[in-house]
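lol ok so funny story. i was supposed to be doing the assay writeup but got distracted and ended up predicting the structure for this chain instead. priorities right. anyway since i did it might as well share w the group, maybe its usefull for someone
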Amino acid sequence: MQVLVRDNNVDQALKALKKKLQREGVFREMKLRRHYEKPCERRAREAAEAVRRARKMERKRIEREGF
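and the output, tada:
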């Protein structure tokens, strides 16, 4: 991953780098890998995440359609 520093503005470049890392999910991945997660716990977490995503998509769809 690469971020350009323009006009010696390191703060702005750092902000852009953090935004890219956040978008890629690097921070989330680091947090998950901090401790070992048993396979059954991982499956349960992923299933819960899928349910949350599905509910969110359904809410957005209903909001768009105006029901």
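Residues 39-65 form the longest helix (27 residues). The chain has a mean pLDDT of 94.
back to the writeup now i swear
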